[in-house]
Design goal:
heterodimer, A: mainly beta, 53% strand, B: 112 residues, mainly beta, 5-stranded antiparallel β-sheet, globular
């Protein structure tokens, strides 16, 4: 069974731009969660999607948004990028909201110049 | 909201035993999880505790005391490949939803 796939693996952007990251969950998993990981703050929850609906949201500004498609694939978007948005963005999938374990993808490393 | 505290770094010797502690404060506790993350890789699930006591899985064990807001991960017969970051995460139930909060991770260095 293929694991969680995130694209792209690496991305370089400049301040003020916007970016879209993609996540394909494990087949049969309908819940997708997004996290931001930085050395200073650790792993922080962004939001969770299930059945194309946002179920939970972490404490991040409105510049961070996401969506989920009918095939459970998910995208997250960050607008008006800031230097502090440089981080590893991880996606995790599970069969249902709140299920454990979550299966993580390898992440997208976003660097803002 | 939640506070999760775990040591930043620990070192241990190959073949030894190490205990990584995690303390938390939460209003709607609904489970505690441990993940392992090697540098440059995705976190992988190690254990899950929702009731008090010890859960053993091979060389790894995890303990929970809900009244004390305390958990530990015990790694026995340490191997070099156990060098990694260990993340403690607490799930909080709130209004029918489950919100996960991760600690900042404990970087474990295993030396020969």
């Amino acid at each position: 069974k293929a694991g969680v796939t995130q694209t792209p693996r690496y991305l370089i952007k400049t301040r003020g731009q916007q970016v879209t990251l993609s996540c394909s969950p494990i087949s049969g998993h309908r819940s997708v969660s997004w996290y931001q990981q930085t050395p200073g703050q650790g792993l922080q929850f962004l939001f969770e999607y299930f059945s194309e609906t946002q179920r939970n949201k972490g404490n991040f500004p409105g510049r961070f948004s996401g969506r989920q498609f009918s095939n459970s694939r998910s995208e997250m978007n960050v607008s008006t990028l800031e230097l502090g948005d440089s981080a590893l963005y991880l996606c995790a999938s599970s069969q249902a909201p709140g299920d454990q374990p979550q299966h993580f993808g390898d992440g997208t490393r976003l660097s803002i110049l | 909201g939640q506070n999760i505290d775990q040591p930043t770094e620990m070192t241990a010797t190959e073949g030894a035993i190490v205990q990584i502690n995690c303390t938390y404060q939460t209003s709607g506790f609904n489970g505690l999880f441990w993940y392992q993350q090697h540098a440059g890789e995705a976190p992988t699930f190690l254990s899950y505790n929702v009731l008090d006591g010890l859960e053993e899985k091979g060389r790894f064990s995890s303990f929970l005391s809900r009244s004390k807001g305390y958990s530990y991960l015990l790694l026995k017969e340490l191997q070099m490949k156990d060098s990694a970051s260990y993340l403690c995460a607490v799930r909080e139930a709130s209004g029918g939803s489950y919100i996960p909060t991760f600690g900042r991770g404990t970087s474990l260095i295993v030396h020969p």
